[in-house]
């Protein structure tokens, strides 16, 4: 089982850790799940802590402050939802997607900066001789190569 689950973590950009606000035991399990996530994923992965069943306020066993406190302590996004009443469900996903997009954009920007530094370094080492330096991104080249069928 462990071997299978770790393969699902590979390449993950985000994770939702959901607990039931009416069941304290589910909240207590969050730290174990978070520990496992951090053990098998990129540290920059976006993680959102979700307290579900917020429509059942009278049966609440985990306070909003507890969830928010854990999220702050562990540097997680936090929201409470009600899947039954469709409260904050879409907001949770939109917030998650927005944060994932931000992380990806920052990574791309950092990669471009590194490429520019390398290109500048190479240009200074090999003065212009009428030749051009072509840097090919293997991933992009592979994607382009496999995108269309050849006739």
From TrEMBL:
Q: Which InterPro entries match?
A: P-loop_NTPase (IPR027417), Rab_GTPases_membrane_traffic (IPR050209), Small_GTPase (IPR001806)
Q: Entry's SUPFAM superfamilies?
A: P-loop containing nucleoside triphosphate hydrolases
What Gene3D superfamilies does this protein map onto?
Answer: P-loop containing nucleotide triphosphate hydrolases
Gene Ontology molecular function, alphabetical: GTP binding; GTPase activity
What PANTHER family is this protein classified in? DRAB11-RELATED
Name this protein carries in UniProt: Uncharacterized protein
Q: Which organism is it from?
A: Nymphaea colorata
């Amino acid at each position: 089982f462990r071997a299978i689950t770790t393969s699902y973590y590979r390449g993950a950009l985000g994770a939702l850790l959901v607990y039931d606000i009416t069941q304290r035991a589910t909240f207590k399990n969050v730290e174990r799940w978070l520990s496992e996530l951090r053990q098998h994923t990129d540290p920059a992965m976006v993680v959102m802590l979700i307290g579900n069943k917020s429509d059942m306020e009278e049966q609440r066993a985990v306070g909003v402050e507890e969830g928010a406190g854990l999220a702050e302590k562990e540097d997680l996004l936090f929201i409470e939802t009600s899947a039954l009443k469709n409260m904050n469900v879409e907001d949770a996903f939109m917030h998650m997607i927005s944060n994932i997009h931000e992380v990806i954009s920052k990574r791309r920007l950092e990669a471009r900066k590194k490429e520019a530094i390398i290109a500048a370094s190479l240009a200074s080492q090999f003065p212009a001789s009428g030749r051009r330096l072509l840097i090919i991104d293997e991933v992009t080249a592979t994607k382009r190569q496999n995108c269309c069928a050849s006739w």
